[in-house]
Q: What sequence folds into this?
C-alpha cells in the first residue's frame, strides 16, 4: 500500500525578492510540515512550478496543469503535479511611483492601465505514484472549492487527500472521495514491473514519426544525450514517459528531467547522457550544444549533430520493426493502391494504438535478447545470487559480433541493471520473461511475415492494455469543475485562503494511528523459477556464417588429425593447407577442439616432435582469427588442451603446447579470462549442488528429473534459492563456505593457467615487447608488458649487458601485476573472504617464478632441437653483366590485391610463396615456391628493374602458416608490379635494413652514370670509394660503414681494381665512354671540370658535326625534303626551309638538337633574339612537312609570361627610337610570316606577302586587345577547346556577309556528349568554363571547309579559301590571355587546356593502385572499374589523342600548325609525335618509329631522367610517365588500326618496360647536350668492348627481330599515304593489358636472354624417371603463371617455329624468319592473281590492296607477350575508321575496285640502273611505268612479284639529262644518264644506251603531260 500524495503545498509569488523583473516563488504553505521518514521532501519545487520563471502578467491567464518529475539522491522519482492559476494584486511599482512623483500627469496616465497585475499561484501535490489524471482532478477540485465557494471546508478536502492510501499493484480498484461530493476510481496495474503509458507512446509517434522515434530509441539505448523541446509542459512529460515505456524491459538509469526550469539550463552541458525536456522558449540557448540530439515535438523534427553517430538496430530487425510500426500507425498505407479498398481501416483508438506500439517494441526486445539466459554465469547462489553475463558468447552465438548497436547496448548501464534485476533464477516473472522464454520459436517463424507479426503484436497489446485497465467497464468519475460564470467573475475574487494547519495535521495523525492498528496487508509475492527458453545453439540466426560444403571441410579436419595421431605424416602434410583454410570457419574450429579432446587421456597427450609441430600449427591457425573477446568460445575450448598436449625433450623435460601458442590477442584480454573463470566456477558450483541433491534424491527415491535432461546451473540455483529459507542456520553457513572455497580454488587454478600463457618461452627477451603494454584492465592489446618496461627492456637487450635475471623479472613483474588485477576483480565480485584474497596475493609471485624456472629449462632444450627443414633457395638467372649486390634473403611473398595468383579465381593458390629476394645491380628478384604443397614443385618468379621502384613502405605481416607477425616491405614498381614480402625470422632485422639502404642507393644513384646501363660490365660487388679525395663524385659510391656491414653480410669481400692512366688530350672526347666500360671509378688525376662541352667539341669539331649530320633527325629531314646539308652555294634558293646550325654548340637552346629546320629567309641572328621569348629558349622549329599539302608542323615551348616584354625594355631607353621589345615581337612576326610564306597554298592564294599592318600576335604591348573575333569552327575544334554550345548551325561572317555552313566535325554522338560536358577534374579538354576571354566558337576558319569527320567521313571540297588561317597555333589557355589577334587572319591561336605534369603523376599513381592493388577489398567503391575511373588515366589519353587528331585534320587541309604548350617537352612532344604517327605511314614501321622517338623525344629533349626520377637529384620530383602515356596512345591507335603498323603490341610493351628499366642508355639523360657531355651520344658507332652488352635499345630490338618474329605484326599491310583518324572517346579506349598481365613462371618477358637461359636450365635438369605409364600431352595453362604466348602461340609463329625445328632436324641451315615470311607473302600474292575470286582468308591476310570494305573487318591479330595469336575478330570499332577522305582518294583505293593484281597496265618497262642512297652502289632494277596508276614501280628482277619501290608521278617535277656520278656503271655513254626530280629527292638513273634513255624520258614526260 502507498500514500496517494506525500505532500501538498501552495506556492506563491515572492514580492520581496524581486530582481530586475525576475521574480521568485515561495512556499506559502506545506502539509505535512515534517518530512515522512520513507520519503523526504524534495528541494527546489518552487523552480519547477514555473519552469520559465516567475513573472507578473497584465492579464489573467487560464489555469494550467502539468506534472514535473524530480529525482532524489537515492534515484527515487517524485511526481510533482502543479496546478497554476492567476490572482490579481495591486502593482507594487505603481504604489512606489504614486508616493514619489504624484505631480507628473503623463506618468499618471501611462501607469493607470497597469494598476492591476496578476501573479501566479500553484497548488502542488508531491507523490511517488504517477496518476496524472487523479492529480488533475484532485487539485482541480480544491480550486473549484475555492472559486465557487462550496460549503466544504478546504481543510477537509486536503486532509482527505493526504490520508488516502491505495495499493501499488495487483490490479485492484479503489474508489476515493475527498469529501466534496466527488468520487474517483483508481485502478492499479496488475503487474508493477510493466510501465504504464496511457496514450503517451502513440502521441510521441504522432508528433515525431516512425524513423525519428527509432533514432531516439536507439540513441537512448546507446547512451546519447537527448533533449525534447515543446511549448507545452505536459507534452514534454508525456514524451519522456513514452520514450521510457518503449525501452522496457531496460530501465533508463541516467539523468531524467522531463521539465527542466530555465534557471537550471547549464545542466545541459553535463558530460553524462540524459533525457531532458525544455520549453521551446529557451530554444536559442540550446543551439550551441554540440553533442545533444534535439527532438522538437511541435515541429516533428529530430536534429542529430554531425559529431554524433547513432548506431541503429541491426538489419533485418530494423526493417521489420519499421514495417510493423507503419502497419500499426498507418494501416491504410498497405491498401492505398487497392482497387477495392475495404470500407474501414481506421487505426485503433489512441489508447489501444499505444499498446500496439509497445507490443512491437516488446517483440523487438524478445528478438534482440533471445537466449540471453543461456549466457548468464551464476557464480554464487548463497547468501545472495551473484550473476555475470557472458557478453562474448552471446554475441558469438548470435553472430552479431560486428554489430555496433548490440555491443553498445550490452556494455551500457541499462543492460547491467537488466542483468542484476532479471538474472536471479528465482523471482516473480512478467510478460517479457514469458515472451523471451516461450515464444522464441513462434517469433522465428513469424519474422518474415508482417501480418503474423501484427497478430502477435495485437495479442501483446491486449495483455498490456489489460495490465493498465483491469476493469475497463468502470467509469464512475464524478468531479466538479469550476462553473463558467465563476471563471468570469473571478475578477473580484478573493485571494486563495491560508489553511488551518492544525486541522489538516489532525487529519493526518488520525489516519496514521488508524493504520498502525490495522492488520498488515500481506500480498503473497508469486516467486517461481524463471524459464530459460530454448538454448542459443538452436537459434543461430539465419545469417549465421555457415561456410559452403562445411561437412566436407570438417571431414578434412578430422582425417588430418587422425593421420597425425596414426603417424601418417605425409598424408597429414598434404591435407595441411586445406585444413588451415578450413579453419577459417567456426564449425571447423569447434570440430578441431572436439577431435583433439578425444586424444587426451587423464589430462595428458604426449606427442613426438612432428605431431607436436602440426598440432601447434593447427592451434595457432585456429586462434589466429579469434578476436580478443573470443566470441565463438574457441580459445576457451582450447585452453584446457594447450596444457594437455606436450612433447618429451631430453633430460626429462616436457614442453607443453601453451609455450607455442602465446602470440594471440585473446590471452592478454581481461574480459576473456573473467568469462572463462566465471564459466568454470559455475560448473564447479553446479557439481557441488548436484552431489548434495543426488544424495537426497536417492534417500527419498524421488524421480524428479526422469526426462534425463542435464539440469542447468540456473535451474539448480533457482531450486536452491527456493529451499534457502527452509534451511537451518548451520546448513546455510556451511553452504556459503563451500561455495566460497570453490571460488578460491578456481582462482588459484587460474593464476597458474594465466602464468602459462602469459610468460614467454624465452623470458629473457619477450617477443611481444615490440607492441605496447597491457595498459588498463580492459586493455585489448596483445602484449604483456607496460611501455616503460618495454623501453628499458629494449635498451638492456641492445647493450647486451647480460643481466638476464633483471630482465626476466621485468616480464615476471608485469605478468604478476596482470594476474593480481584479475584476481582482485573476480574475487571481489564473487565474494571471496579477505584472508583468502591475501593468501592469493602472496602465492602469485611464487607461481610465476616457479613457472619461469621450468620454462628456462624447456627453452634450453628447445634450442637443441634440429631446425625445421625449409625449402632450398633457388638462384635466379642473371643477365650478362648483371651482378648480385645482396645475396638471397629468405622471405615470403604475400598475396596482394590481385586475386589471380591466390586461387580465389580458380586454379591453385600460387601465393603465398616462400623463397628468397635477390638484389642485383639491375633488378629486384623474388624466386621461390608456393606454400601450397599441391603446387609446391612450381617455381614462382616476380621481378622488376630496381630503377622502376616508385614506392617502398614497411608493413607487418602475419603469415598464415606460423602465426608470428613479421616485418615486411611493400615495394611498388612503375612496371605495374608489386611485391609484398615478409622477412623470414632467420633474417636479422639489421640485415633487412641493409637491404633497404642498398635498394635506395641503387634506385637513386648520385649521378646517371650510376645506373645499370652505365655500370653494367663493371666488376665488383660494391663499387668502393677510393681513399684519395675524388673530384668526380658522379660514380656511385657507397658509404664506408655500409660497405662494411654489407661485406659482413655478404661474405664476398673482394673488389677488383684496374690500373688507370689518364687519357691523352687527343682522345679526351671519347674519354667518358671509355670510362663507362672501365671497371673502377676514375682516380683524381683528371679534373672533370675541364671536360666541358665546348672543349670536347672544339678538339674535334668536324667529327662532331659529321656525327650530328648522321643523327636520325637529319635523315628524316632529308626524307621529308625539308633541306639538305650541302654547302650554301649549291643549296637551291627556292627551298623554303634550311637546316640551321645555329645551335650546334647548344648555346641557343640547351635542350634542342644541334641541327634545326628554320625558314630559309630567317638569319641565325634573328633566331638568337627570338628564342628569348619562349620558355627554355625553345623557339618554334619545323619537325615535319605534309608531303601532299606542304603544310608544316612546328613545335615550341609556350611563350614567356607578359613580364618578359618589360624585361627587354631598358628603363632609360630613348623614347624616339623603337624599343627592343617591339623589335623582338616584330621579328617574331617575321618568323611566323616566313613560315606561312613557305606554304604553296599561301603564295598561290593572294600573293600578298607584305608585312605591313601586321600587329604582333603574342607580344602586343598595347592592351587594347579587342575581344577575339568570332571565327567559325567545326565541332572538333570546339570539342578540343571546350566551348559551351556545340550546336552545329550557321554563323554569319561580319565582313563578307556570306553564310557558311558548319557541319559538326564529329559523329552525332559526340555532340550529345559535348552538350553535357563530363564533370571530371578537368573534363575533356573542354575545361572549366573559363572561356570568358574567347567567344564560344573560337578557333577559326576551320569551317572554311565542310569539315571532314574526325574519324574519316567524307569532306567536301574546300571553299571560301581565303577564310582559312595558314597557321594555327595550339597554345595553352592560361598563357594566351589578352593577346591581340592578327588582323589579316593569317594565323590563329587555338587555346586549349593542357594537363600538367602533376595531373599525369597523380593519375598514374591511382592507375597503378587500380591495376595492382596492394590488398584485396570488398568495398564496392574500390572496385577495379571505379578506381580506374577515378584515376582519370583514360581521360588523359582522350585529351592527348583528341588534340592530336585535331592537328592531323588541320595539316591535312593544308594549314600549318604550331604546337606551343608548356615547356615544349612533355605534352608538346606527345602531340607532335602522335600527329606524325597518324599522318605519315613511315613512322608506323620499325625504322620510322625508332626515328620518331629519337627525333622528337630524345633529340628535342624530353627529360627522361628527370621525369623518371632516375637519380638522387630528381628523386623529389617523383615519377611522371609522359612517355608511357604516349606509348599507351600508340597502343590505342594500334588497336583500332591493326593493319597499319609493322610492329606488334609487344614492341610497345617492350619499350614501355625498358624505358624505365635503365638497362639501356637510350632513355637516360635529359637532352642531346647532356648525352654529348657524357660522351654517350655517338659511342654506339664505335666498336664495342663487350659485344654482349647492348647499350642502345634499338640495336637490341634489331638483333632480336632478326632472331624471332616477336616484334613483328603479321597483319601489316599498309595503305599508301594513309592518314589515320582514331576514335578518341573514353568508351573507345581500352585499358592496356601491359598494366594487368603477369607471368609468375618466369617473371617479365622483356629481358630475352633470361628466357633462353631458363629454358636451357630446364632442359639440363633430367626428367624424373617416369612410372612407365603413358605421359599426357596435355598441359594446364594457368593465367598469371604461364606465358600464354609461349604455351599457346598464334598460328603463324607456331608454323615458323615448326619450320625452324624441321630445318634443324634435316640439318639445313635455317633461314631467317623474315625471309620465310616474305616468300610466303609473295607466293600468296601470285595465288591471288590466279584465283578469279580471291578467297577471303588468304587475301585478307596479306594482299596490300584490299578494298576498304573488307579491310575494315579488321582481322585482328591479338598480340601477347611472346608473339601473336590470331583472332579473326571483326573489330567493329575499326570499321569506319580507315576510310580516307574522299576529296583525295588514294590511288590504290580507286583501282583496287577493278583489279587486285599488278600484272596489267604496264605501259613501258625495262632495265635501268638506279643510284642507291648515300655511299651505296648503282644497281640494275626492272622498272615499270604504269600510266593508269600514274606511278613508276621497280622490282629486283623481271620475274619478281614483290614491288621494291614506287615513285608517284604526281610528285615528279622534271625529267632532265644527267651527268655520270661517282660509282656509276663503267663503259656506258654519258647520254644514257638522266635524272628524275621529285618533290622529295632527285633520282639518278642510267639506261643501257642513250637511245633507251631518251625513250624513258619521253615516256615519263608524256605521262606527266597527260596528267
A:
Amino acid at each position: 500500500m502507498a500514500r496517494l500524495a506525500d505532500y501538498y503545498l501552495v506556492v506563491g509569488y515572492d514580492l520581496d525578492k524581486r530582481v530586475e523583473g525576475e521574480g521568485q516563488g515561495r512556499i506559502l504553505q506545506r502539509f505535512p510540515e515534517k518530512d515522512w521518514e520513507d520519503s523526504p521532501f524534495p528541494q527546489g519545487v518552487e523552480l519547477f512550478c514555473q519552469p520559465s520563471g516567475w513573472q507578473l502578467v497584465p492579464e489573467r491567464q487560464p489555469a494550467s496543469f502539468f506534472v514535473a518529475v524530480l529525482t532524489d539522491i537515492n534515484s527515487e522519482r517524485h511526481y510533482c503535479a502543479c496546478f497554476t492559476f492567476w490572482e490579481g494584486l495591486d502593482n507594487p511599482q505603481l504604489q512606489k511611483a504614486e508616493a514619489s512623483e504624484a505631480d507628473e500627469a503623463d506618468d499618471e496616465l501611462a501607469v493607470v492601465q497597469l494598476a492591476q497585475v496578476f501573479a501566479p499561484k500553484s497548488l502542488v501535490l508531491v507523490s511517488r505514484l504517477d496518476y496524472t489524471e487523479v492529480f488533475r482532478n484532485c487539485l482541480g477540485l480544491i480550486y473549484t472549492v475555492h472559486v465557487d465557494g462550496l460549503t466544504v471546508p478546504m481543510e477537509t478536502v486536503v486532509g482527505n487527500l493526504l490520508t488516502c492510501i491505495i495499493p501499488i499493484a495487483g490490479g485492484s480498484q479503489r474508489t476515493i472521495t475527498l469529501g466534496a461530493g466527488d468520487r474517483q476510481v483508481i485502478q492499479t496495474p496488475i503487474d508493477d514491473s510493466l510501465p504504464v503509458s496511457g496514450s503517451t507512446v502513440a502521441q510521441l509517434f504522432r508528433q515525431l514519426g516512425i524513423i525519428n522515434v527509432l533514432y531516439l530509441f536507439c540513441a537512448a539505448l546507446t547512451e546519447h544525450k537527448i533533449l525534447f523541446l515543446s511549448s507545452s509542459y505536459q507534452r514534454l512529460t508525456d514524451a519522456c514517459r513514452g520514450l521510457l515505456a518503449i525501452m522496457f524491459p531496460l530501465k533508463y538509469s541516467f539523468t531524467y528531467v522531463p521539465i527542466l526550469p530555465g534557471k537550471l539550463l547549464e545542466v545541459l552541458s553535463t558530460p553524462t547522457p540524459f533525457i531532458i525536456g525544455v520549453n521551446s522558449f529557451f530554444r536559442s540557448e540550446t543551439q550551441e550544444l554540440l553533442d545533444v540530439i534535439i527532438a522538437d515535438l511541435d515541429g516533428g523534427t529530430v536534429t542529430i549533430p554531425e559529431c554524433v553517430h547513432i548506431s541503429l538496430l541491426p538489419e533485418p530487425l530494423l526493417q521489420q520493426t519499421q514495417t510493423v510500426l507503419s502497419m500499426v500507425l498507418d494501416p491504410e498505407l498497405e491498401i492505398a493502391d487497392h482497387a477495392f479498398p475495404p470500407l474501414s481501416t481506421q487505426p485503433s483508438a489512441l489508447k489501444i494504438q499505444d499498446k500496439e506500439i509497445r507490443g512491437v517494441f516488446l517483440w523487438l526486445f524478445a528478438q534482440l535478447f533471445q537466449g540471453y539466459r543461456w549466457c548468464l554465469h551464476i557464480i554464487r547462489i548463497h547468501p545472495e545470487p551473484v550473476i555475470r553475463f557472458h557478453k562474448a558468447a552471446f554475441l558469438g552465438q548470435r553472430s552479431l559480433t560486428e554489430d555496433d548497436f548490440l555491443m553498445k547496448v550490452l556494455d551500457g548501464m541499462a543492460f547491467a541493471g537488466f542483468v542484476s534485476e532479471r538474472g536471479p533464477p528465482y523471482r516473480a516473472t512478467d510478460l517479457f520473461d514469458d515472451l523471451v522464454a516461450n515464444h522464441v520459436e513462434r517469433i522465428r517463424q513469424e519474422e518474415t511475415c508482417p501480418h503474423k507479426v501484427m497478430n502477435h503484436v495485437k495479442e501483446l497489446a491486449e495483455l498490456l492494455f489489460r495490465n493498465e485497465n483491469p476493469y475497463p467497464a468502470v467509469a464512475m468519475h464524478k468531479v466538479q469543475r469550476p462553473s463558467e460564470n465563476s471563471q468570469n467573475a473571478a475578477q473580484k475574487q478573493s485571494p486563495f485562503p491560508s489553511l488551518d494547519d492544525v486541522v489538516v495535521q489532525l487529519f493526518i495523525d488520525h489516519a496514521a494511528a488508524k493504520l498502525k492498528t490495522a492488520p498488515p496487508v500481506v500480498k503473497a509475492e508469486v516467486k517461481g523459477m524463471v524459464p530459460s527458453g530454448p538454448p542459443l545453439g538452436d537459434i543461430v540466426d539465419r545469417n549465421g556464417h555457415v561456410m559452403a560444403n562445411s561437412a566436407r571441410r570438417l571431414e578434412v579436419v578430422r582425417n588430418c588429425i587422425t593421420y597425425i595421431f596414426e603417424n601418417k605424416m605425409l598424408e597429414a602434410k598434404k591435407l595441411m593447407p586445406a585444413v588451415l583454410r578450413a579453419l577459417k570457419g567456426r564449425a571447423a574450429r569447434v570440430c578441431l577442439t572436439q577431435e583433439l579432446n578425444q586424444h587426451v587421456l587423464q589430462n595428458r597427450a604426449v606427442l613426438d616432435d612432428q605431431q607436436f609441430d602440426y598440432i601447434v600449427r593447427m592451434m595457432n591457425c585456429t586462434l589466429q582469427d579469434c578476436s580478443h573477446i573470443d566470441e565463438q568460445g574457441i580459445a576457451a575450448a582450447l585452453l584446457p588442451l594447450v596444457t594437455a598436449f606436450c612433447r618429451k625433450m631430453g633430460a626429462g623435460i616436457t614442453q607443453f603446447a601453451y609455450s607455442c601458442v602465446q602470440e594471440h590477442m585473446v590471452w592478454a584480454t581481461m574480459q576473456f579470462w573473467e568469462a572463462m573463470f566465471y564459466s568454470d566456477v559455475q560448473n564447479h558450483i553446479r557439481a557441488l549442488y548436484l552431489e548434495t541433491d543426488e544424495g537426497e534424491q536417492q534417500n527419498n527415491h524421488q524421480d524428479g528429473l526422469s526426462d534425463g535432461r542435464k539440469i542447468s546451473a540456473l535451474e539448480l540455483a533457482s531450486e536452491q534459492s527456493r529451499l534457502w529459507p527452509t534451511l537451518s542456520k548451520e546448513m546455510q553457513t556451511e553452504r556459503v563456505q563451500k561455495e566460497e572455497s570453490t571460488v578460491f580454488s578456481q582462482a588459484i587454478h587460474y593464476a597458474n593457467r594465466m602464468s602459462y600463457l602469459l610468460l614467454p618461452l624465452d623470458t629473457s627477451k619477450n617477443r611481444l615487447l615490440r607492441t605496447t603494454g597491457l595498459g588498463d584492465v580492459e586493455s585489448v592489446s596483445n602484449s604483456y608488458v607496460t611501455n616503460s618496461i618495454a623501453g628499458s627492456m629494449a635498451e638492456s637487450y641492445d647493450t647486451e649487458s647480460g643481466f638476464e635475471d633483471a630482465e626476466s623479472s621485468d616480464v615476471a613483474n608485469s605478468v604478476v601485476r596482470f594476474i593480481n588485477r584479475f584476481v582482485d576483480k573476480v574475487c571481489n565480485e564473487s565474494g571471496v573472504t579477505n584472508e583468502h584474497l591475501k593468501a592469493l596475493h602472496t602465492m602469485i609471485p611464487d607461481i610465476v617464478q616457479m613457472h619461469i624456472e621450468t620454462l628456462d629449462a624447456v627453452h634450453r632444450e628447445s634450442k637443441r632441437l634440429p631446425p625445421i627443414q625449409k625449402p632450398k633457395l633457388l638462384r635466379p638467372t642473371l643477365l650478362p653483366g648483371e651482378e648480385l649486390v645482396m645475396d638471397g634473403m629468405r622471405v615470403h611473398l604475400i598475396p596482394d590485391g590481385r586475386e589471380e595468383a591466390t586461387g580465389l579465381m580458380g586454379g591453385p593458390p600460387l601465393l603465398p610463396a616462400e623463397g628468397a629476394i635477390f638484389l642485383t645491380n639491375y633488378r629486384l628478384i623474388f624466386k621461390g615456391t608456393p606454400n601450397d604443397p599441391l603446387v609446391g614443385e612450381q617455381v614462382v618468379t616476380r621481378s622488376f628493374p630496381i630503377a622502376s621502384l616508385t614506392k617502398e613502405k614497411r608493413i607487418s605481416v602475419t603469415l598464415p602458416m606460423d602465426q608470428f607477425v613479421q616485418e615486411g616491405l611493400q615495394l611498388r614498381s612503375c612496371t605495374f608490379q608489386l611485391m609484398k614480402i615478409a622477412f623470414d625470422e632467420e633474417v636479422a632485422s639489421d640485415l633487412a635494413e641493409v637491404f633497404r639502404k642498398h635498394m635506395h642507393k641503387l634506385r637513386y644513384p648520385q649521378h646517371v652514370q650510376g645506373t645499370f646501363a652505365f655500370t653494367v660490365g663493371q666488376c665488383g660487388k660494391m663499387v668502393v670509394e677510393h681513399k684519395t679525395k675524388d673530384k668526380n663524385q658522379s660514380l656511385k659510391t657507397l658509404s664506408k660503414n655500409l660497405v662494411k656491414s654489407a661485406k659482413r653480410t655478404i661474405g664476398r669481400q673482394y673488389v677488383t681494381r684496374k690500373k688507370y692512366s689518364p687519357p691523352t688530350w687527343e682522345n679526351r672526347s671519347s674519354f667518358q665512354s671509355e670510362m663507362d666500360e672501365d671497371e673502377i671509378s676514375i682516380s683524381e688525376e683528371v679534373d672533370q671540370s675541364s671536360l666541358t662541352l665546348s672543349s670536347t667539341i672544339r678538339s674535334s669539331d668536324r667529327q662532331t658535326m659529321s656525327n650530328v649530320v648522321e643523327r636520325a633527325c637529319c635523315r628524316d629531314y632529308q626524307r621529308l625534303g625539308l633541306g639538305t646539308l650541302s654547302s650554301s652555294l649549291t643549296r637551291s634558293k627556292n627551298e623554303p626551309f634550311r637546316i640551321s646550325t645555329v645551335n650546334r654548340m647548344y648555346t641557343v637552346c640547351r635542350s634542342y638538337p644541334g641541327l634545326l629546320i628554320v625558314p630559309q629567309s630567317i638569319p641565325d641572328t634573328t633566331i638568337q633574339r627570338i628564342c628569348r621569348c619562349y620558355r627554355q629558349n625553345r623557339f618554334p622549329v619545323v619537325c615535319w612537312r605534309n608531303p601532299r599539302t606542304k603544310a608544316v608542323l612546328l613545335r615550341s615551348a609556350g611563350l614567356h609570361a607578359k613580364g618578359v616584354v618589360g624585361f627587354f625594355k631598358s628603363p632609360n631607353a630613348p623614347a624616339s627610337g623603337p624599343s627592343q621589345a617591339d623589335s623582338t615581337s616584330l621579328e617574331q612576326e617575321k618568323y611566323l610570316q616566313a613560315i606561312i610564306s613557305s606554304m604553296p597554298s599561301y603564295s598561290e592564294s593572294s600573293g600578298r606577302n607584305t608585312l605591313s599592318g601586321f600587329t604582333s600576335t603574342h607580344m602586343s604591348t598595347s592592351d587594347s586587345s579587342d575581344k577575339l573575333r568570332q571565327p567559325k569552327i567545326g565541332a572538333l575544334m570546339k570539342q578540343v577547346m571546350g566551348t559551351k554550345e556545340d550546336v552545329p548551325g550557321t554563323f554569319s561572317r561580319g565582313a563578307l556577309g556570306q553564310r557558311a555552313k558548319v557541319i559538326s566535325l564529329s559523329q552525332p554522338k559526340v555532340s550529345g556528349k559535348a552538350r553535357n560536358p563530363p564533370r571530371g577534374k578537368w573534363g575533356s579538354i573542354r575545361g572549366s568554363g573559363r572561356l570568358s576571354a574567347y567567344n564560344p566558337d573560337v578557333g577559326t576558319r576551320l569551317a572554311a571547309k565542310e569539315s571532314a569527320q574526325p574519324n574519316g567521313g567524307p569532306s567536301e571540297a574546300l571553299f571560301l579559301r581565303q577564310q582559312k588561317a595558314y597557321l594555327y597555333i595550339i597554345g595553352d589557355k592560361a598563357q594566351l590571355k589578352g593577346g591581340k589577334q592578327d588582323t589579316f587572319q593569317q594565323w590563329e591561336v587555338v587555346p586549349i587546356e593542357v594537363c600538367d605534369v602533376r595531373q599525369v603523376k597523380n593519375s598514374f599513381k591511382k592507375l597503378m593502385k587500380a591495376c595492382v592493388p596492394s590488398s584485396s577489398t570488398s568495398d564496392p567503391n574500390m572496385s577495379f572499374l571505379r578506381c580506374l575511373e577515378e584515376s582519370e588515366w583514360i581521360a588523359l589519353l582522350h585529351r592527348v589523342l583528341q588534340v592530336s587528331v585535331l592537328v592531323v585534320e588541320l595539316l591535312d587541309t593544308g594549314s600549318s600548325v604550331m604546337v606551343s604548350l608548356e615547356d615544349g617537352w612533355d605534352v608538346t612532344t606527345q602531340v607532335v609525335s602522335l600527329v606524325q604517327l597518324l599522318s605519315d605511314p613511315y613512322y608506323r614501321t620499325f625504322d620510322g618509329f625508332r626515328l620518331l622517338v629519337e627525333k622528337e623525344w630524345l633529340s628535342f629533349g624530353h627529360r627522361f631522367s628527370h621525369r623518371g626520377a632516375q637519380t638522387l637529384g630528381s628523386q623529389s620530383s617523383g615519377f611522371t610517365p609522359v612517355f608511357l602515356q604516349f606509348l599507351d596512345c600508340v597502343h590505342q591507335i594500334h588497336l583500332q588500326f591493326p593493319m597499319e603498323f609493322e610492329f606488334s603490341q609487344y614492341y610497345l610493351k617492350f619499350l614501355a618496360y625498358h624505358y624505365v628499366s635503365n638497362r639501356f642508355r637510350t632513355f637516360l639523360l635529359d637532352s642531346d647536350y647532356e648525352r654529348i657531355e657524357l660522351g654517350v651520344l655517338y659511342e654506339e658507332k664505335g666498336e664495342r668492348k663487350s659485344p654482349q652488352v647492348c647499350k642502345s635499345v634499338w640495336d637490341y630490338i634489331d638483333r632480336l627481330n632478326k632472331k624471332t618474329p616477336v616484334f613483328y605484326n603479321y597483319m601489316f599491310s599498309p595503305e599508301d599515304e594513309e592518314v589515320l583518324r582514331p576514335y578518341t572517346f573514353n568508351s573507345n579506349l581500352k585499358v592496356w593489358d601491359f598494366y594487368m598481365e603477369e607471368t609468375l613462371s618466369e617473371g617479365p618477358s622483356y629481358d630475352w636472354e633470361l628466357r633462353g637461359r631458363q629454358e636451357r636450365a630446364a632442359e639440363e635438369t633430367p626428367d624424373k624417371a617416369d612410372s612407365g605409364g603413358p605421359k599426357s600431352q596435355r598441359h594446364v595453362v594457368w593465367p598469371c603463371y604461364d606465358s600464354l604466348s609461349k604455351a599457346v602461340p598464334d598460328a603463324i609463329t607456331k608454323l615458323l617455329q615448326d619450320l625452324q625445328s624441321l630445318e634443324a632436324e634435316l640439318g639445313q641451315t635455317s633461314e631467317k624468319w623474315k625471309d620465310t615470311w616474305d616468300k610466303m607473302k609473295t607466293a600468296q600474292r601470285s595465288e591471288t592473281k590466279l584465283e578469279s575470286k580471291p578467297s577471303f582468308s588468304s587475301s585478307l591476310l596479306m594482299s596490300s590492296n584490299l578494298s576498304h570494305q573488307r579491310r575494315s573487318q579488321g582481322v585482328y591479330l591479338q598480340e601477347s607477350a611472346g608473339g601473336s595469336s590470331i583472332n579473326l575478330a571483326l573489330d567493329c570499332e575499326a570499321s569506319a575508321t580507315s576510310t580516307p577522305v574522299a576529296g583525295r582518294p588514294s590511288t590504290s583505293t580507286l583501282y583496287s575496285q577493278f583489279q587486285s593484281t599488278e600484272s596489267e597496265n604496264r605501259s613501258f618497262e625495262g632495265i635501268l640502273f638506279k643510284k642507291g642512297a648515300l655511299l651505296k652502289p648503282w644497281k640494275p632494277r626492272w622498272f615499270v611505268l604504269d600510266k593508269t596508276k600514274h606511278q613508276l614501280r621497280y622490282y629486283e628482277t623481271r620475274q619478281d612479284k614483290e614491288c621494291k619501290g614506287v615513285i608517284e608521278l604526281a610528285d615528279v617535277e622534271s625529267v632532265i639529262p644527267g651527268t655520270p656520278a661517282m660509282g656509276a656503271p663503267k663503259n656506258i655513254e654519258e647520254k644514257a644518264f638522266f635524272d628524275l626530280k621529285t618533290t622529295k629527292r632527285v633520282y639518278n638513273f642510267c639506261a643501257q644506251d642513250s637511245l633507251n634513255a631518251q625513250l624513258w624520258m619521253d615516256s615519263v614526260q608524256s605521262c606527266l603531260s597527260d596528267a
